[in-house]
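Students often ask what a holo structure prediction actually looks like on paper. The answer is less mysterious than it sounds. You provide the chain, you provide the ligand, and the output is a string of discrete structure tokens encoding the 3D arrangement of the protein together with guanosine-5'-triphosphate.
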Amino acid sequence: MAQSVLPKYFSDTETRSLQTGYSNGDVVSVILRIKRVEDSGNVLINIAVLGDGGAGKSTFINTMRGVRSGDQGAAPVGGYEASVNPVGYPYPSLPNVQLWDLPGSNSLGFEMSRYLKQVQFESYDFYIIVSQSRFRESDGELSKKIQQQGKGFYYIRSKIDNDAYSMQMQGTDFGEGQRQIRQDCLDNFHRVSVEPPAIFLISGLEVTGYDFPKLQSALASDLPKIKSTAYRLAIPRMMQEIQRPRRQILMWCIILWAFLSGALGVLRLPTLPLLTATLCTVSGWIYLRRQLGVSERELGILSGAVAKPVSLLKADMDRPSPHKLQLLVPKALLLVVIVAFTVVGLTGTFPPVLLIVCGAVSSLAFTLLVLMCSLDDRLRSVQNLAGALFDETGVTVYRSVAVSTA
Ligand SMILES: Nc1nc2c(ncn2[C@@H]2O[C@H](COP(=O)(O)OP(=O)(O)OP(=O)(O)O)[C@@H](O)[C@H]2O)c(=O)[nH]1
Ligand SMILES: [Mg+2]
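The corresponding structure tokens follow.
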């Protein structure tokens, strides 16, 4: 699967036009164009069908598509032809939906993290976990990983025809048996601290039996929500792509600034490292603020367009980055080094060449680090702003069919 999400929503020409708009400072139009595309019906939705080997994933996909194993274009079924790489199949009932047949989560001999990488787990928009006989530990792990991404999934207990047969042989009431299976799934989701999804008990061989019809209609009615969640989650990466050319130009400006900061330190004045580092960093910071800041007027336009108060938009923009604290320590250390060289320079106890070189290098590094962080923070706040125009739903739970459906 392609890693970049942008081509899904914008053509190359549209992307370039958005990049140019952003580089020219037209943040509002860029964000409003992104907002408009959300309603587009032409977005391809990728649904991963996953679970242990032999659980019935390929059979389920074939039945969803109205083909039988062995038909041309059908997913291979059975242990000997097990899928090794994810394979996408169009789902004719819902245009622009692609069902991906993933290899069994226990069949490649990898540990879970390597398996997830191999199947590009995070590339999909929605997930269907297929499980046979009982809830597996891997089902719990997979569902956690899905919810951590803020995406949704269904849980399928496959081969329910086998359970029906066993219950019949044992004289167990099938309705009660189904209720117990559902309850067991719910208990297991609670045990692994996952918000239970919609649960379907199906036979992959019977498209009209058990919960199969409910699953199909649930998917059809959940599709708009799946699309909007996929779109909302793609916004930070889309914005990064749109911001890329402008970021590159500003990055070069910062590098020049940092060299200026270091080069001025070569002049043989003892207080210069501190002075040049401070001056260059502050002036660069003000320049970035002017270049990338979003004005009150622009915020007002966006607030009016999406009927969301400016104060909320600002709060979303200022959401701190998780990486912000990590770089505080190197910044503080560099500042201490610069101050130390300045103080030592004033006392005149060290060879001037050593002081000048070290002072210049630390000034350069400090200016570079502070301004690069500031650049990325400002770009990120615009990404947050674009994301703030969409409803936040937190953990996405799809319950078109109540989990207690009998
Ligand atoms: N009785 C019954 N058999 C099923 C059902 N679903 C799948 N099977 C059978 O289970 C076996 C494995 O099915 P597959 O669809 O190949 O399973 P898979 O999960 O794709 O397996 P891998 O690709 O190897 O991971 C096949 O023999 C299917 O005919 C079902 O709902 N009921
Ligand atoms: Mg298969």
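The CA atoms of residues 19 and 242 lie 5 Å apart.
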